[in-house]
Write a sequence for this structure.
């Protein structure tokens, strides 16, 4: 196995290199702190497995996609669980995701597992991925207050939930007649023939979410 570590030089980096050489004595292990894309491409072509520190000032997504296109196994090295780029890095579907607070045994097992064609997710990063997924499923609506009033938008939200006029009236403490007026106003402002089309338009524009 030929392993490439793309990471800034530091005491942590030196410790990783020492650990890797100790655990994989028969492997060729190279460290690169270059930011030149041509150099990184060339080094990657000569490697089987590539660990990239996501904090490196390099075009990570492009490099990772290129490495994977030529059948290289790529591991993201993560040091900040709050990194705003984590969601997009998870989308790359790399061979592995390792958090820096990893012990020698886990790191060795992770690299061995990935080299054997399997995937590895550090437990803390797996929890982080789950949190990102859950947040993505709870999208905040974008109220069209430049198109309709706050109260009309509240009625539209309840229409999207399938509420009848009477149920909307009870929910918002309004009269049935007032709700009918709001619905008529919404249809007119959205230029749609009925409440079904009003909801479809609101969903399309992401004003409401089911």
């Amino acid at each position: 196995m030929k392993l490439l570590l793309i990471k800034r030089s530091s005491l942590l980096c030196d410790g990783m290199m020492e650990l890797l050489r100790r655990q994989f004595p028969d492997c060729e292990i190279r460290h690169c702190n270059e930011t030149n894309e041509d150099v990184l491409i060339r080094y990657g072509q000569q490697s089987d497995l590539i660990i990239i520190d996501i904090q490196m000032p390099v075009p990570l997504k492009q490099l990772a996609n290129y490495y994977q296109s030529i059948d290289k196994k790529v591991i993201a090295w993560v040091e900040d669980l709050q990194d705003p780029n984590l969601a997009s890095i998870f989308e790359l579907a790399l061979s592995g995701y390792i958090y820096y607070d990893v012990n020698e045994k886990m790191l060795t097992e992770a690299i061995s597992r990935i080299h054997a064609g399997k995937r590895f997710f550090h437990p803390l990063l797996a929890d982080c991925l789950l949190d990102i997924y859950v947040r993505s499923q709870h999208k905040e609506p974008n109220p069209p207050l430049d198109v309709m009033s706050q109260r009309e938008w509240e009625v539209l939200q309840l229409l999207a939930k399938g509420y009848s006029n009477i149920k909307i009236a009870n929910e918002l403490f309004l009269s049935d007649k007032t709700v009918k007026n709001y619905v008529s106003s919404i249809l007119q402002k959205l230029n749609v023939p009925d409440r079904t089309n009003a909801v479809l338009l609101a969903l399309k524009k992401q004003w409401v979410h089911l």
